[in-house]
Description:
By secondary structure, the chain is α/β, with parallel strands linked by helices.
Amino acid sequence: MKKAAVASVLLLSAAGLLTGCKKEEVEKAIAPLVADAQDTTEAEEVQETEESSVPEIDTSVSIQPGARVAVVSKNTKGEFWDRIKKGMEQAIADINEAYGYEKDDLITMTFEGPDDEQDVEGQINTLDAVIAENPDVLCLSASDMDSCQAQLEAAKENGIPVVAFDSNVSDTKLVRAFRATDNERVGEVGAYRLATAIGKMGKVAVFSAQEKTQSIKQRVEGFTSYIEKYGDIEVVEIIYEDQVEDMTAAMQEVLEKYPKLDGVFCTNADIAELYLNMKKDETREVVAMVGVDATSRQQEAIRKGEEIGVVSQQPYAMGYQTMLTAVQTTAPKKSVSIEKKILTPPAWIDASNLDDPAYSEYLY
Length: 364
C-alpha cells in the first residue's frame, strides 16, 4: 500500500477506535481515500522518467556494412516529427562512428511520408515506391493500422525486415520490432490530470486525431477507461478528425452544445493547437484543457494559463531507438536478440516543471 493510503488507513482506524465505529463502517469510509491516494501515486510515478531512453550501441553485433534504411513516416512536418528524424539521424551517425564505417560501408537512411497524417493514400503510395527500391530495412509509422497489409506482405516476400515506430499495424506478425510511447498510459495520465483539475466531477470532451491510427486509438481508450474511475465525470463527446469535415467547426459545435463543459482532452499536438487557436467565447468560464506533446505552442499556452499541461513523449529517443533496432535487424538472426516491443513511459509537463532541465527531452 502507498504511503498516502497508509496514512489514511491509520487515521481512520484510530477514529474508529475512538468513536466505537464498526469495522465495516471504517472500511467503507477508508475505501475512497485509499483509492484516491493510489490513483495519485500511480499517475505521478509516470513522471519519474527523467533518464534518457537513448540506448548504447553494442559493436559486438555484426550489422551489415552499407545497409540502407528507408523510413516511411505518417507525417514529415511538425516539431514532433522533426525530433524523431533528428534522433534517427544521430543514431546513424553514432553507428557509423562506433563501427568505423566510411565511404561504401556507411549506413544510410531516407525519411519520407506525407505532410498530413490523414493522407493514408499518400503514405501507401510512398510505401509502394520505397519497397520497389528494395531497401535493407523498412521503418514505418502507420497512419492507418489496417491499410498497409499488402505492402507489409510485399516487404516480407522480399526479405525486408520492418520496424514499426510511434504507431503499429494490426498484423504485428509482419513487424520485427516496435518502438513507441506507452500510449494507453498517455490517455490515463491525461484523464487523471484533467479529473483533478476539474474537481473530479463535471462534463468533459475528447478531441482526437484520426481513429484509424493505433497510437490515437490507445490514447482514447486509456483516457476513457481511466476516467470511469470518477463516477461524477461524464464524457459527453468524442470527436475524431477523420470523421468530420472540419475539425475546428466540430470542436466549436461541442463547446456551443455544452455551455457548462468543464474540460477537454486533445489527443495530439495538431488537435491541441487547433483548439488553442480557436476563437473562444470570452463570456463563458475557461474550459480546462489537457493536451499531448510539449510543442512550442503548447509550452506557450501553459505559461499563459490557457492549458493545464501536456502528457509528453520523447520523440528524439524514439527515433534513436527505432534506427538502432533497424540496423540490428541486418545482423544474422541468431547473432542478436531484438526485443519485440519497447514502450517508453510519457511524462506530465506543466508550469511546475516546464523549465526543469530534467524534462528537457520531453520538450519539442
